[in-house]
Amino acid sequence: MYTYANSQANIFIVLDPKCNSDSPGWSGEMCLGYDCSGVDNCYGNGLCVGPNICKCNNGWSGQQCINALCSNVNNCSDHGFCILPDICLCSSTYTGENCSTCIPSHWGARCEPCPNCQNGNVILIQVLFAFNGLFKLTFVCTNKIIGVCDDYYAT
């Protein structure tokens, strides 16, 4: 605590060098420094550039630099979650670096399960498109072991 006294002018000033809750983000003696404790110190993904103000590193965004960005992997193709910069965690039926590929035994724009066949595999033999943009798929089963729904894709 600092005290300034001037008895001739009847001035007494007492300064408390501690910051209080009315000054979040400020620290140090007489609150001359700043910190980012109010934004979890930018989660280690950025620099503190002002009182509770983060400047995020590349690949991170948000007030606390907690949101990973996946712009280089097509934002996970809207089929997954960005967990680290340009690292996707794909939804259950998608795979690949940007979650744009169906897992085995799944096909189509929504990676739906392939039809089941007994004693063989399914192949797509016909796609009929209607004027309204809908389509009808015809599947047949084969006795060849070639992989279920491999390389067949329809939107």
TrEMBL record:
Q: Does the keyword section mention Disulfide bond?
A: yes
Q: Which cysteine residues pair off into disulfide bonds?
A: C56-C65
Its keywords, alphabetically, are: Disulfide bond, EGF-like domain
Q: Which InterPro entries match?
A: EGF, LE_dom
List where this protein forms a coiled coil.
Answer: none
Q: Which Pfam families match?
A: EGF_Teneurin (PF23106)
Where is each EGF-like domain found?
Answer: 32-66
Protein's recorded name: EGF-like domain-containing protein
* Source organism (scientific name): Mytilus coruscus
